[in-house]
């Protein structure tokens, strides 16, 4: 009853509104257009009104589908009816109706059926005549929708006519007013989502797609056509490189390399050139070809986290323009396995350790073939200790498992390329091109000698230093550094490499003492801004050395600085405000900071004499392409080092050897464990087959000595079995190998085999009395074992921190093996009779440092409190967040540790960022550190969405000392991260809605 009453009220309201609109139409339509003198027109108009009223009830159900968008007791168009007020349109409509009625003079039987047919015919003709104008005036966003509606309406009519079917007379006598039909059409138009891409953008994308198709044809082995607009890529890429990088043309060697047969036929490739020769651009072009043309994912492996973050920022703009994703895998960042994309392709940019975990996860999910290209920067890192072993394992697995993945390696320092070629089954391309000519010198006493290996003495006299030194000055600067640096600064830049971190600071201070005051006037404003920002990053504290040196345009650069400080110094040096950096050798292998002159303060790194590769990396920083016409390096020597220096500058590069046997064979043990865990190999014979495909096998004679490769594999397998990581079962023909639960957790968590059993023991003990009212216990469990011996406790500070703990926290400390009595005796200087676990003692001390960091989030305060360098504290924090991520994956594989999963997930995030909670979303953006995050938050950019939609020009005005390039990179990185998160959610939705392939059926 209620429903019937409601329907009746609705009908009355609709009739009332209809009459009001008709009256409004009559009022606004000119008399000459109404044809009021025509009785036919009047009758027709009257008929339309009567049928509209009759239609109301039947039309109610048809309109019901729009209830979600338009309430029944509310007119869709409000007080304004666009059709009623459009006099030109209504006049045209009335004229056409009248014309057709006058033309229809053929006598027919006046049956209801014929009358209905006549009416339908008239309406069909009327609508057909209006169709052209109607569709022509529609916007492109609605054209497709209306044409589909038109086709759908015509289809049933033609089918009905072909079959000779007739509608019932009561239905056929009804007709819908043209105005209501158009009104419904407009409603349909309103509901159609407008396309997000403009027609111009669609046209541009069409051009790009066509160029990619041309490039794909060119890549076919049998193709004889050119590579296409830009080395197999659409011309848009060339435009982007020019717009984003300022590179208009490629060097000749780059063009040659990109057109090599090995590149076109997708064979593995190793190419080597001197530093700053432009190797990276070639790699990026190859990556873009893989993503855009071959529609495969790609992996770029870089040695350091800072390089990964810099490359993520640099390539984010390319990803946004060319529609691919850039994903960061460094520290604790990265998903395993990565999100499976249905449409977009991904470029994974990873550190060596994260790349190994990524490849393992892809093998485990049978997705490695989706990885079309692996690019390794600094390929000589294969010879770098445990990291080299991890890199070798990664490449060996790719080679063994996937026959379609191409590997490209690049380096500036390669010697035994033949071994690497054999290992990677790769071609080799070498060139000695440098965009800026490098001249190498050595300094002995006050004379400069040019290095010429062709000379018998190797050193050829060039000039004598002409700088007046006082006796006190000579005593302070016996190496004549002031004379050497003032020849180039402040007009040009200079790097001074020092053997130790402390020496970097001392040299920077010493040089400032003897510089003229005029040096302080060079770009004074930029240097004042740098000091203010350094002070801001330290929450009001600034390094006293930097406070003295920065006004002169000088700063030091080493691992003792925080990430914020290093980034600020690097940016200011790149802008030219800082003209001199005193630095350690790590800068040579880090980010690209070139200089007009490079000075090597000593031929030693710490106490070890320089290697040829280290020397070439340092001197390779001399000469800035596009800025300087030449570059020069000066090695300062003492007479006692002259012979060693001659050998250094004339000998060839050191050979690169496999490190799988490094540190008692930890690499080969980890390799065999992961091979069995990933089911790559199941038997001893298969393991031997795999190991025979490694660099270790290629260099067996140089590395193994008397032992054979097979003996080493068998011994390693025995060790893994004794540690309880691998077990064997009898098979039909051969013994089968499989990992235990502990073994699977170890390789899935990338936990060092040296500590896997210790970690398991500590986590098990933790479950017995896990303290949850404080973070200290969890922090202790994720404090990295390898950093324990890098720090000696300050016992007085240790005791003071211990006494400030709660009773529950002190009880926890005793439970892990560090009682209060022990710390009290050590603080008072008493000798200890009872032995204690030094690892647990040192580890708990580092836990106190981390605990203080999470509570105070002020790195300067914590470093001062524990008498540690702020660089060490930050390194500890970074290592702890990475190890926490490893422990999380470790516990996920062991059922008894289920409780740790939720706890460690949150702790990983806290350790990764170690800032106030509101800043975490901003710090997720690559390269945005705490100081920048605070600035952005203070300027109103509080979320990732704020950053992604920010205007770079407004960002520059809101944030002090932010360049246009940096602002663009921040916005692009935020957009990329936001896109990646949205894509991941969409992929998850699609996965949930996908019909299971194994769905039971009858």
UniProtKB/TrEMBL annotation:
Organism lineage: Eukaryota, Metazoa, Chordata, Craniata, Vertebrata
Main location, first listed in the record: nucleus
E.C. designation(s): 5.6.2.4
Stored CDD domains: DEXHc_POLQ-like (cd18026), SF2_C_Ski2 (cd18795)
Span of domain Helicase ATP-binding: 260-432
InterPro entries listed in its UniProt record: DEAD/DEAH_box_helicase_dom, Hel308_SKI2-like, Helicase_ATP-bd, Helicase_C-like, HTH_61, P-loop_NTPase, POLQ-like_helical, WH_DNA-bd_sf
GO molecular function: 3'-5' DNA helicase activity; ATP binding; DNA binding; hydrolase activity
Keywords: ATP-binding, Chromosome, DNA damage, DNA repair, DNA-binding, Helicase, Hydrolase, Isomerase, Nucleotide-binding, Nucleus
Top-level division of the source organism's lineage: Eukaryota
Biased composition regions of type Polar residues, renumbered to the chain: 46-56
Gene Ontology terms: biological process: DNA repair
Subcellular localization(s) per the UniProt record: Chromosome; Nucleus
Similarity-based family: Belongs to the helicase family. SKI2 subfamily.
Region annotation Disordered: where it falls in the sequence: 1-56, 148-176
KW Nucleus (keyword) present: yes
Name of the protein in its database record: Helicase POLQ-like
Presence of keyword Magnesium: no
Helicase C-terminal domain ranges (all copies): 480-672
Ranges of biased composition (kind: Basic and acidic residues): 163-176
GO cellular component: chromosome; nucleus
Function summary: Single-stranded 3'-5' DNA helicase that plays a key role in homology-driven double-strand break (DSB) repair. Involved in different DSB repair mechanisms that are guided by annealing of extensive stretches of complementary bases at break ends, such as microhomology-mediated end-joining (MMEJ), single-strand annealing (SSA) or synthesis-dependent strand annealing (SDSA). Possesses both DNA unwinding and annealing activities. Forms a complex with RAD51, stimulating HELQ DNA helicase activity and ability to unwing DNA. Efficiently unwinds substrates containing 3' overhangs or a D-loop.
PROSITE patterns per the UniProt record, alphabetical: HELICASE_ATP_BIND_1, HELICASE_CTER
Catalyses which reaction(s): Couples ATP hydrolysis with the unwinding of duplex DNA by translocating in the 3'-5' direction; ATP + H2O = ADP + phosphate + H(+)
Organism field: Lepisosteus oculatus
């Amino acid at each position: 009853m209620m429903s019937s009453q409601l329907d009746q009220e609705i009908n009355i309201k609709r009739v009332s509104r209809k009459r009001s609109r008709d009256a409004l139409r009559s009022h606004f339509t000119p008399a000459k257009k109404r044809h009021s003198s025509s009785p036919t027109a009047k009758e027709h108009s009257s008929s339309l009104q009567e049928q509209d009223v009759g239609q109301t009830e039947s039309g109610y159900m048809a309109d019901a589908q729009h209830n979600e968008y338009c309430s029944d007791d509310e007119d869709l168009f409000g007080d304004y009816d666009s059709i009623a007020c459009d006099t030109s349109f209504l006049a045209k409509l009335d004229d056409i109706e009248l014309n057709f009625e006058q033309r229809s003079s053929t006598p027919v039987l006046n049956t209801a059926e014929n009358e209905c047919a006549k009416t339908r015919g008239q309406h069909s003709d009327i609508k057909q005549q209006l169709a052209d104008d109607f569709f022509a005036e529609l916007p492109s966003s609605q054209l497709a929708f209306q044409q589909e509606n038109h086709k759908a309406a015509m289809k049933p009519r033609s089918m009905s006519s072909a079959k000779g079917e007739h509608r019932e007379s009561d239905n056929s006598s009804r007709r819908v007013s043209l105005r209501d039909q158009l009104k419904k059409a407009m409603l349909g138009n309103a509901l159609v989502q407008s396309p997000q891409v403009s027609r111009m953008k669609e046209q541009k994308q069409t051009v790009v797609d066509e160029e990619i198709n041309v490039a794909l044809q060119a890549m076919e082995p049998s193709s004889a056509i050119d590579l296409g607009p830009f080395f197999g890529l659409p011309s848009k890429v060339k435009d982007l490189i020019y717009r984003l990088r300022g590179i208009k043309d490629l060097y000749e060697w780059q063009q040659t390399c990109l057109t090599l047969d090995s590149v076109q036929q997708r064979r593995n490739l190793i190419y080597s050139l001197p530093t700053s020769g432009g190797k990276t651009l070639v790699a990026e072009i190859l990556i873009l070809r893989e993503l855009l043309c071959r529609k495969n994912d790609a992996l770029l492996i870089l040695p350091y986290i800072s390089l990964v973050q810099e490359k993520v920022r640099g390539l984010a703009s390319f990803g946004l323009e060319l529609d691919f994703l850039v994903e960061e895998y460094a520290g604790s960042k990265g998903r395993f396995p990565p999100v499976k994309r249905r449409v977009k392709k991904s470029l994974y940019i990873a550190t060596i350790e994260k790349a190994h975990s990524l490849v393992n996860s892809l093998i485990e999910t049978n997705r490695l073939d989706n990885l079309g290209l692996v690019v390794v920067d600094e390929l000589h890192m294969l010879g770098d200790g445990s990291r080299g072993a991890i890199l070798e394992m990664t490449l060996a697995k790719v080679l063994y498992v996937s026959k379609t993945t191409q590997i490209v390696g690049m380096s500036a320092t390669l010697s035994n390329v033949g071994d690497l070629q054999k290992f990677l089954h790769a071609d080799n391309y070498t060139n000695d091109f440098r965009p800026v000519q490098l001249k190498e010198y050595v300094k002995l006493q006050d004379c400069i000698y040019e290095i010429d290996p062709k000379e018998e003495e190797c050193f050829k006299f060039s000039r004598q230093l002409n700088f007046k030194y006082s006796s006190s000055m000579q005593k302070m600067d016996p190496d004549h550094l002031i004379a050497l640096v003032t020849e180039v600064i402040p007009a040009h830049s200079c790097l001074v490499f020092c053997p130790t971190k402390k020496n970097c600071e001392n040299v920077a201070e010493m040089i400032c003492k003897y510089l003229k005051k005029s040096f302080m006037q060079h770009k004074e404003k930029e240097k004042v801004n740098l000091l203010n920002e350094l002070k801001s990053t330290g929450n009001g504290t600034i390094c006293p050395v930097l406070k003295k040196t920065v006004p002169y345009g000088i700063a030091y650069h080493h691992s003792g600085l925080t990430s914020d400080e290093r980034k600020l110094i690097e940016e200011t040096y790149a802008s030219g405000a800082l003209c001199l950096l005193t630095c350690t050798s790590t800068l040579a292998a880090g980010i690209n900071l070139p200089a007009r002159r490079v000075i090597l303060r000593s031929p030693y790194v710490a106490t070890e004499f320089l290697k040829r590769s280290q020397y070439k990396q340092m001197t390779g920083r001399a000469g800035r392409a596009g800025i300087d016409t030449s570059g020069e390096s000066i090695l300062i020597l003492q007479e006692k080092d002259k012979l060693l220096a001659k050998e250094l500058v004339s000998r060839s590069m050191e050979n690169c050897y496999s490190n799988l046997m490094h540190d008692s064979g930890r690499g080969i043990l980890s390799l065999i464990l992961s091979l069995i865990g990933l089911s790559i190999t199941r038997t001893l014979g298969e393991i031997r087959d795999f190991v025979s495909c490694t660099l270790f096998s290629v260099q067996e004679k140089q590395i193994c000595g008397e032992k054979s490769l097979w003996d080493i594999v068998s011994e390693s397998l025995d060790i893994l079995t004794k540690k309880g990581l691998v077990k064997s079962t009898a098979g039909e023909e051969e013994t089968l190998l499989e990992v235990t639960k502990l073994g699977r957790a170890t390789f899935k968590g990338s936990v060092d085999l040296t500590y896997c059993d210790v970690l398991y023991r500590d986590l098990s003990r933790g479950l017995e009395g896990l303290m949850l009212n404080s973070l200290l216990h969890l922090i202790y469990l994720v404090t990295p074992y390898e950093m324990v011996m890098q720090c000696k406790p300050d016992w007085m500070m240790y005791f003071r921190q211990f006494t400030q703990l709660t009773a529950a926290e002190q009880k926890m400390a005793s439970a892990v093996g560090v009682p209060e009595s022990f710390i009290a005796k050590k603080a008072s200087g008493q000798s200890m009779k009872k032995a204690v676990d030094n690892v647990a003692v040192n580890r708990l001390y580092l836990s106190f440092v981390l605990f203080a960091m999470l509570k105070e989030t002020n790195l300067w305060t914590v470093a001062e409190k524990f008498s540690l360098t702020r660089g060490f504290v930050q390194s500890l924090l970074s290592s702890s967040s990475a190890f926490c991520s490893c422990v999380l994956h470790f516990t996920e594989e062991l059922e008894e540790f289920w409780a740790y999963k939720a706890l460690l997930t949150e702790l990983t995030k806290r350790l990764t960022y170690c800032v106030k909670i509101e800043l975490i979303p901003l710090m997720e953006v690559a390269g945005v550190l705490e100081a920048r995050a605070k600035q952005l938050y203070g300027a109103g950019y509080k979320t990732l969405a704020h950053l992604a939609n920010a205007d770079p020009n407004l960002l520059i005005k809101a944030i002090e000392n932010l360049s246009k390039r940096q602002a663009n990179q921040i916005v692009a990185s935020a957009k990329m991260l936001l896109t990646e998160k949205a894509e991941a959610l969409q992929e998850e939705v699609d996965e949930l809605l996908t019909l299971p392939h194994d769905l039971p059926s009858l």
